[in-house]
Amino acid sequence: xxxxxxxxxxxxxxxxxxxxxxxxxxxxxxxxxxxxxxxxxxxxxxxxxxxxxxxxxxxxxxxxxxxxxxxxxxxxxxxxxxxxxxxxxxxxxxxxxxxxxxxxxxxxxxxxxxxxxxxxxxxxxxxxxxxxxxxxxxxxxxxxxxxxxxxxxxxxxxxxxxxxxxxxxxxxxxxxxxxxxxxxxxxxxxxxxxxxxxxxxxxxxxxxxxxxxxxxxxxxxxxxxxxxxxxxxxxxxxxxxxxxxxxx
Length: 248
Hints:
8-stranded mixed beta sheet, 10 strands, 7 helices
């Protein structure tokens, strides 16, 4: 069953001429805006990895993956019961959590036809006590989620967009220890970041220091301008030997 949050996000990102819930080939697409297909993915990106890879063969695709910056919890007495309490959850996400989402999506991102949009949002989540058989007490079931606000938004299209998340203070050659120290994060988080950077081609492994892998940022790829391409073709034509037209 679709949550209010999913519906609100579709309405938020659909343009005035966009269509919602459209069948494209064998897939159901959240939003179709002209030639662009837009998927709002509230759960993990891994669940739409194959779908996205397939769609990218013929379409421009934008994946919207919200991260919950703050969650207000509303506890009910029962499924249709009275409200008992409401509070802000201590659990939060920030923009670095994009690396957690990309762990199982690096075979798709980056791609020239793919845009990954990551809004940080505040939501309200309504829940009530729910105990399944052979489960401990304290379990709950989410009744619904609603959007309160969009706090900020990041857009990722290239590996350079991922590189921009890392501080410029990193040395030329670095490992996960340097990433952790420079960003003020735990080592295990730095290891996930390094994994995603390596799998997306953002960094290249360049050796080891003890048991720690060492990395360097991969050189940025620049598209040749039309003038540069023309000059390159002229040089190639001059360098290649002319074929003889004389009959053997």
